[in-house]
Amino acid sequence: MKHAREIVTLLIAFTAFFGDHVVFQSKLSNSKLLKALADSAVHGILGCLSALAFLSNDTNYSTQTLMYNVMFCTLISCLIDVDHIFVAKSFSLQDITNTKSRGFLHCTSLWLFVTVSLLTYSYIAKKVNIFSMTWMLILAFSSHHIRDGNRRGLWMYPFGHTPPIPKYLYIGLTMFLPHLLAVIYRVTKPTRHTVLDYSDVVTLI
Ligand SMILES: [Zn+2]
């Protein structure tokens, strides 16, 4: 589609602005359940759009490849907040929303370590599907952590937290990063035409 890249990038900015307004400033934020659901939905939509923005930089993907990648990235973007349950040690929404510390899935340095290790392994072993899947993980955690970082900074264990990311920097990064990552992916991928087939990933693992 013509201008797909520009449209998706603008949708990222719109989702971040409008989504944050709904989650934190609208009447909906009076309900803990609705606030938690809306917050998770915004993370999921941003993950979905980040994957689309990343994939819009190459026209060689099949519809199936696009769908699998976008669904995977969306799912991981939402699932990162599951760690609130581990921190709260409870399924009660009251306990989950009142946690003071952050769960391990919100540790940016841990994700960086895991994804860089996966990229290095898959590059050396020429595991193209794992290499491609890892970029979806990077898109998922980066969009989630940068958005959360607007309020709480990035958790760079063992160095502590960065200051909160200013609003416009967070939105700019969320818009720009998928395109930068797509360039890095294109120049580093082990083989020229990478098609992600999750049935292959299962057999490879
Ligand atoms: Zn989160």
Automatic annotation (TrEMBL):
<keyword id="KW-0812">Transmembrane</keyword>
<feature type="transmembrane region" description="Helical">
    <location>
        <begin position="67"/>
        <end position="91"/>
    </location>
</feature>
<feature type="transmembrane region" description="Helical">
    <location>
        <begin position="36"/>
        <end position="55"/>
    </location>
</feature>
<feature type="transmembrane region" description="Helical">
    <location>
        <begin position="103"/>
        <end position="124"/>
    </location>
</feature>
<feature type="transmembrane region" description="Helical">
    <location>
        <begin position="130"/>
        <end position="147"/>
    </location>
</feature>
<dbReference type="GO" id="GO:0016020">
    <property type="term" value="C:membrane"/>
</dbReference>
<keyword id="KW-1133">Transmembrane helix</keyword>
<protein>
    <recommendedName>
        <fullName>Transmembrane protein 267</fullName>
    </recommendedName>
</protein>
<feature type="transmembrane region" description="Helical">
    <location>
        <begin position="6"/>
        <end position="24"/>
    </location>
</feature>
<keyword id="KW-0472">Membrane</keyword>
<feature type="transmembrane region" description="Helical">
    <location>
        <begin position="168"/>
        <end position="188"/>
    </location>
</feature>
<dbReference type="InterPro" id="IPR026572">
    <property type="entry name" value="TMEM267"/>
</dbReference>
